[in-house]
Amino acid sequence: MNKKYRFHICHLTSVHPRNDSRIFHKMCKSLASKDVKMTLVVADGKGNETVDNVEIIDIGVPAGRLKRITQTTGEIFNKAKELNADVFHLHDPELLLIARKLKKLNKKVIFDSHEDTVNTILVSPYLKSPVSNIISTLYENFERYTCKKIDGVIGATPHIENYFKKFAKQTENINNYPILSDKKLEQISWDKKQDEVCYVGSIDDTRGIKDLMNSLELTKSQARLNLAGMYSSLTLEKEIKEHKDYHLVNDFGYVNSEEVENIYNRSLVGVVTLHPIPTFLVSLPIKMFEYMVAGIPFIASDFPYWRNLLKGSECCIFVDPQKPKEIADAIDYFMLNKQKAKQMGEVGRKLVFENFSWESQAEKLLTFYQKVLSN
Questions:
Q1: C-alpha distances in angstroms, 148 versus 36, 142, 168, 311?
Q2: What's this model's pTM, rounded to 2 decimal places?
Q3: What one-character-per-residue DSSP string does 174-217 give?
Q4: In this structure, are residues 127 and 255 in contact, taking their beta carbons and an 8 Å threshold?
Q5: How far apart are alpha carbons 331 and 171 in whole angstroms?
């Protein structure tokens, strides 16, 4: 007997991996458990499979970025036509190229804006002004025109949603908070922690890696850095590995979720010192919430938005992310005041469980789908 579902949602991505945290683990899996049929179309070349009641359909790896934007988007559109879902949920700006084509088939279409793409283009390290200005303006006009025609837009932060509210038919803010249903608010073991600070995530200059490296030589505690993630370029990787204080780094490379948890368990403090560029000033970095879930305090960029978000809670030390001496002083404070670090970690863990759970966002997402389908 075929199972009856409330409705069928099809997520489309030409860029993200099938195990993407926001798309698969949060959006797809959480609603598949609520009798919603979930299909995820990807382009990673790993084949079709069904995982945790989510049907994953692979259209194959594109041969380069240009092919991805042209050929792959067309293949995703053809697959979408076959699937005939109730709602098509687009996750990449380039998929807006097929949004209106899906609408012409009388389909419900929503766009999930993971980032402020207009400003991201402006600060792209691969584009120089005035080229970045021209491309950003062209994309902004295209995005506005297309998103007026579809059924709704989801923003990954309040800032992104507020931008789309000006012209989209309906919007919702679905924050990228951590999944807490499989976590317990229990005592964190501090006896195994080392004099180590950790950074887990994309490794890039704008995310503060050079300033963090330069802070190591200024510390008095000689703390080590647990570094995990992908470098944004081979040039940056070479520069970091040739840094005079790289001997103080435990470089884990790209790691899975279990290994990330092990890094948090051994570390005394986390770091999220993003540079003050427009897209970061109003961002919600998942690593900040992960540090809180792990029960460790963190060193954060002194952004007004983040101060307000944490409601003045004493779970971190705010610093100027471009001043290595301030980062070094914060590292030393935690290393020399371990009991205080533990107390701040406990404050952060309590705060994340009370205010920043993915479970609350999953309910908002389900309600938004229902709203789109009813209009």
A1: 27, 10, 5, 35
A2: 0.88
A3: ---PPP-TT----PPP-TT--SEEEEES-B-GGGTHHHHHHHHT
A4: no
A5: 40
Residue with structure tokens 């990330």? 260
Do 248 and 216 meet the contact criterion of CB atoms below 8 Å apart?
yes
Asked whether the predicted pLDDT for residue 2 surpasses 70, the reply is: no
Spatial distance between the Cα atoms of 208 and 192, rounded to a whole number of angstroms: 27
Looking at residue 1, its pLDDT comes to: 39
pLDDT tens for 176-229 read: 999 997 676 556 778 889 999 999 999 999 999 999 999 999 999 989 999 999
Q: How confident is the model at residue 302 (pLDDT cuts 50, 70, 90)?
A: very high
Dihedrals φ, ψ of 212, to 5°? -65, -45
Q: Which residues contact 52 (CB under 8 A, 6 or more apart)?
A: 29, 32
| Contact (CB, 8 A) for 218 and 328 | yes
Instruction: Answer yes or no: are the C-beta atoms of 200 and 183 closer than 8 Å.
Output: no
Q: What does the radius of gyration of the chain's CA atoms come to, in whole angstroms?
A: 22
Both tokens of 161, joined, read: 């949603």
Please say whether the beta carbons of 269 and 299 come within 8 A: yes
Q: Measured between alpha carbons, how far is 136 from 224 in angstroms, rounded to an integer?
A: 40
Dmax over Cα atoms in the chain, in whole Å? Answer: 67
pLDDT digits (tens, 9 = 90+) for 167-183: 999 999 999 999 997 67
